[in-house]
Amino acid sequence: KFPVMGVRWRSSLTLGEKEQVNGSSAAAAGGDNKREDGNKQVVASYWGIKGEEVKKEDGTPWKWNFFRPWETYQADLTIDLKKHHVPTTFLDKLAYWTVKSLRFPTDVFFQRRYGCRAMMLETVAAVPGMVGGMLLHCKSLRRFEHSGGWIKTLLDEAENERMHLMTFMEVSQPRWYERALVFTVQGVFFNAYFLAYLASPKLAHRVVGYLEEEAIYSYTEFLKELDKGTIENVPAPAIAIDYWRLPADSTLRDVVMVVRADEAHHRDVN
């Protein structure tokens, strides 16, 4: 349950609480949303459309409204974590040293607070896939041609990174200045990446590849702190257990392992 200024995110409410919220919303709108049998109809979205009742494989209700069971998966933990693209061309070197220069202020600001560090970085990591997918989508419309599957790939990458953020929000509470920093960093990075992608998609993807290499390093350090006991290995959030199909007794360490594997996959794609 994640409080923000006294209000919890809707995705973390229980089913009973959601019904109560929906009932209150319907009453405020002046409608009873009654069915023919006289019972109130639960409206599951702000569009006023009744959503389908989704259940888990065991028959229990699915409590997440921003991703569904068919969007979950099991991460490939056997992926090579040490793979590195050696910069050879000018664009490669530009991308590599740009990413390396961004690491220093990040290390200074977060020190070894890897929970908050992960949460901040995921607000940035989810931007490239959305920007690239959006620009390729527009390009496809302009040229009346297919994208070769890249639009879906990049949008899936952005969604996966966003799910990383949704998970770490349950583990680490951001401070007010960290929330403010998100606005600044995301605003600058979104526009910079947008212009970079327009100028050279190859450079933009290479930047993401090196960013993911740095993410793998950061999560490896996160695991070391968990193993040393510096960071408490708390139970895995419910959202992570459902999204990555983890065992019910999974811990934060298990979550960091699958997130790191995701980052390695994004590295290889880019």
TrEMBL record:
<protein>
    <recommendedName>
        <fullName>Ubiquinol oxidase</fullName>
        <ecNumber>1.10.3.11</ecNumber>
    </recommendedName>
</protein>
<dbReference type="Pfam" id="PF01786">
    <property type="entry name" value="AOX"/>
</dbReference>
<dbReference type="GO" id="GO:0005743">
    <property type="term" value="C:mitochondrial inner membrane"/>
</dbReference>
<keyword id="KW-0679">Respiratory chain</keyword>
<dbReference type="InterPro" id="IPR002680">
    <property type="entry name" value="AOX"/>
</dbReference>
<keyword id="KW-0812">Transmembrane</keyword>
<keyword id="KW-0408">Iron</keyword>
<keyword id="KW-0999">Mitochondrion inner membrane</keyword>
<dbReference type="GO" id="GO:0010230">
    <property type="term" value="P:alternative respiration"/>
</dbReference>
<comment type="similarity">
    <text>Belongs to the alternative oxidase family.</text>
</comment>
<dbReference type="GO" id="GO:0102721">
    <property type="term" value="F:ubiquinol:oxygen oxidoreductase activity"/>
</dbReference>
<dbReference type="GO" id="GO:0009916">
    <property type="term" value="F:alternative oxidase activity"/>
</dbReference>
<keyword id="KW-0472">Membrane</keyword>
<keyword id="KW-0560">Oxidoreductase</keyword>
<dbReference type="GO" id="GO:0098803">
    <property type="term" value="C:respiratory chain complex"/>
</dbReference>
<keyword id="KW-0249">Electron transport</keyword>
<dbReference type="InterPro" id="IPR038659">
    <property type="entry name" value="AOX_sf"/>
</dbReference>
<keyword id="KW-0813">Transport</keyword>
<comment type="subunit">
    <text>Homodimer; disulfide-linked.</text>
</comment>
<dbReference type="GO" id="GO:0106292">
    <property type="term" value="F:superoxide-generating NADPH oxidase activity"/>
</dbReference>
<keyword id="KW-1133">Transmembrane helix</keyword>
<dbReference type="GO" id="GO:0046872">
    <property type="term" value="F:metal ion binding"/>
</dbReference>
<keyword id="KW-0496">Mitochondrion</keyword>
<keyword id="KW-0479">Metal-binding</keyword>
<keyword id="KW-0809">Transit peptide</keyword>
